[in-house]
Amino acid sequence: MALVEEKSAGREGARTSAMGFWRTVAAGALGGGFVGLLTGGVLGRVLMRLLAVTSPESVRGRLTDDIQPVGQISLGGTLQLFVTTVALGAVAGLVYLWVRRVLPVEERSRRWLFALFVGSIGGAFLLHDHPSFDYSVLRPEWLAVTSFVVIPTLYGLFAPPVIDRLASPGGWAMSARAWVVLVVCAAALNLTLVLVTVPVLAAFAISRSTTATRAWHSTTVTVAGRALFVLMVAWGLYGIVTDVVSIATNTPSGAPLTP
To answer: Is the dihedral of CA 80, 85, 88, 94 positive or negative?
Structure first.
């Protein structure tokens, strides 16, 4: 009887652990999606409108790099922007769950380092070299460049505390009904769910293996992860600098290996 009870307790513990993993994933996606909506969606829409107002009248109605007409705000376009920024924020929230493995435990340091990470990588991917429409035609150029570096940086600054709160023992992602949490998580990810399925399943498999989990928390992985973190930040900053130089000099960038 004791052996049966022990096995039953073991299975129950495994189920609880597995559900804890999926609830944590949901916390990352939900918290990241919420902050993505605020920074990329709401703030992004405000900055785009500001750029439309400060740019020459001749650019009104022309298409941006994202195939959006300058100066025109529609309900459909706004909803599309909001859905996209929620999904991208949700994916970035999952990235945070991975990156925080090598970040400091202290909250302020963790937030600022993640902001540096997202700001450099995100900024490098959002910026384009000359003669990109967004950064060569819209005026002032400095506002366009600054806006699309500030947005991911602000995301990186505010997403960690939201995600950590949702993933805490009393957080919504950990206390609400499991099916509700997972459904809302899937809705936040929407089409990007296809992209994150394989990496998340791989992470789940690692979490189920004692050996893999021990290796994941080893000093070797910590050192390698921090080195990779530094390289990724340096790569992003390199991309931003080359794009800014290209925009400032009105010459296409020939720099290799840019994001």
So the answer is: negative
